[in-house]
Amino acid sequence: MPTKSQLLWMYEIMEKARYYEDTMAAAYMEGKSPKFDIGAGPLPGEMHLAAGQEPCAAAVCVHLRADDTVTATHRPHHAAIAKGVDLKKMTAEIFGKATGLGGGRGGHMHLLDPAVNFVCSGIIGEGAGPAVGAALAAKLKGSDAIAVSYIGEGAANQGGVHEALNLAALWKLPVVFIIEDNGWGISVPKSASTAVADNSVRAAGYGIPGSHVADNDTLTLFDLAEQAVNRARRGDGPTLIEVETYRYYGHFQGDPELYRPKGEVAALKAKDPIARLRRQIIGQGVTEEEANEALSKAKREVDEAFAFARAAAYPAPGDALTRVFA
Amino acid sequence: MSSNRIMTVSRAISEAIAQEMRADPTVFIMGEDIGTYGGIFGATTGLLAEFGKERVRDTPISETGFIGAGVGAAMAGMRPIVELMFVDFFGVCMDAIYNLAAKNIYFSGGNYKVPMVIMTATGGGYSDAGQHSQTLHATFAHLPGLKVVAPSNAYDAKGLMISAIRDDSPVMFMFHKGLQGLAWMASPEGAASELPEEAYAIPFGEAKVVRPGKDVTIVSLSMMVHRSLDAAEELATQGIEAEVIDLRTIVPLDRKKVIESVRKTGRLVVVDEDYKSFGLTGEIIATVAEEDPTLLKAAPQRLAVPDVPIPYSRPMEQYVLPSADKIVAAVLTTMKKGA
Questions:
Q1: I need a labelling partner for A16 at 20 to 30 A (CA). Which of A229, B90, B138, B273 fits?
Q2: What is the pTM of this model?
Q3: pLDDT, tens digit, for every residue of B283-322?
Q4: At the topology level of CATH, where does B6-194 sit?
Q5: Residues of chain B with CATH 3.40.50.920
Q6: Do the Cβ atoms of A121 and B168 come within 8 Å?
Q7: What is the Cα–Cα distance from B269 to B267, expressed in whole angstroms?
Q8: Does the domain made of B208-336 have the CATH classification 3.40.50.920?
């Protein structure tokens, strides 16, 4: 059961992530109209937003420490926020500025913050192996730090993920694998990509526990993640959790989503997980004032981060040649 | 130094790893058959017995998994050595190598280091056919963010492996199977060397003139250094003094030494066991041409595998691989023009 402070933390993180993604969606379109040109404006390139997937980040990361590692996907912002990545440096990186996490070299899909052990990658499924490696490092060092690997339900069919699961199970490594099932691998629904309806059954193939969270429920995931994290810290090995979650935006910004049934997103929004959590936390001892305060604080931090990023300078072009090697 | 310190390349590699593992508890090694078996090509013999199975880990056949894990462990403060059994197997795990290991330092603006060694066996000439005989130097050298090392002898192998382990960037350590000194595969006499007992590091980016000469520059690496030296012996009997350069590392590449030599000799032959087009031989020639094409008194010659999969049947395999005879012929071609 979450404490009051954990409830409030999760709520604030989820509001922060949601507001971040919505702010990013609007900013992304600057310079890209009337004709959408992916390379134009202050936020050129691809953009993959995680609005609707906030529980996956908050309800897991609430149990993590700074020395735990998180590897995330091409849709990383909510996880980065929940892990405590420096929001100003993260936003500056997404805007391609010199004061970004990577000095502008990585951008939105390659956000790396060693201060909180957060990394993400644009290649599907490829964060699973490194999460296993971070867990192995912790074990070799005699630390009880753990690793969390976020992957999508599409990635669950990638060979490297299978390898990572087997290796983590075989070597009893402290990894928690979280499958964010938002129903869509770009335009391909899960029913057309995956031989099983529920990926948690695949855990049995590695002899590890697997569980499933229906309908984006923050508190259910909180409990399951707590068990998985504790299991890992105890040295009892990995766990697989699949979370049925919601993708409010397209696969990428600019995705016309012609493949998506009309009304699907509206129906998901009608049961928004943040609104649900807010009702739940008020019922569990958090006051309206406290919740409002958390919401204001969240928005303020996001606004400050965007302002920082916009005002920041671009890197010198020649910086492209630096920092290749250590 | 006593002659019982003349050691094979495989011994040099395992000794380098052992010395670094003794000195630094963050160094560990994983890969297929590297533990109990000691590595299919003998590169990890003795390590399991000395260091135990926590630090010397036999893996399942899961290259994406364990090379990806190597990246994660390296970024978490360890210094993993990961063996990719045959370089030809890179296809199943290349993402972890070229998109993760090679790029995470850059993506993080230098805030992360990736102190990982990927050691891998290269080379043909013993009829192991198209998927087990490649060298692929250029494949890895071409993609930014990887250092690429290919020793030709035991002395260099030990010093370069030690440097590789100590490097905070990812290093591809490419060792030729035919140089290892295995009981079950022939190797040239010059591959084994006297090994100093202590740990020593050979810096990257320093090619070595392994035979000085004034008439022609032969640039090579790995097994082909030995073919080049054999060719130089034969050429000397014909009154031609060939200078043989062993590149030792191709990222970083010692272009200066190559240019210096060609400035002296005016003639260039490049020998690589990798495929010919879009590779190392072209890179060396371009290096000289960019510096000053008038340095060359004759057209440069390059010897490499002629853009075909390496065939199985012995006469065909020998046909595609560079040899001392072919190097001699190439040198003679360059000697026809100019003074």
A1: A229
A2: 0.94
A3: 999 999 999 999 999 999 999 999 999 999 999 999 999 9
A4: Rossmann fold (3.40.50)
A5: 208-336
A6: no
A7: 7
A8: yes
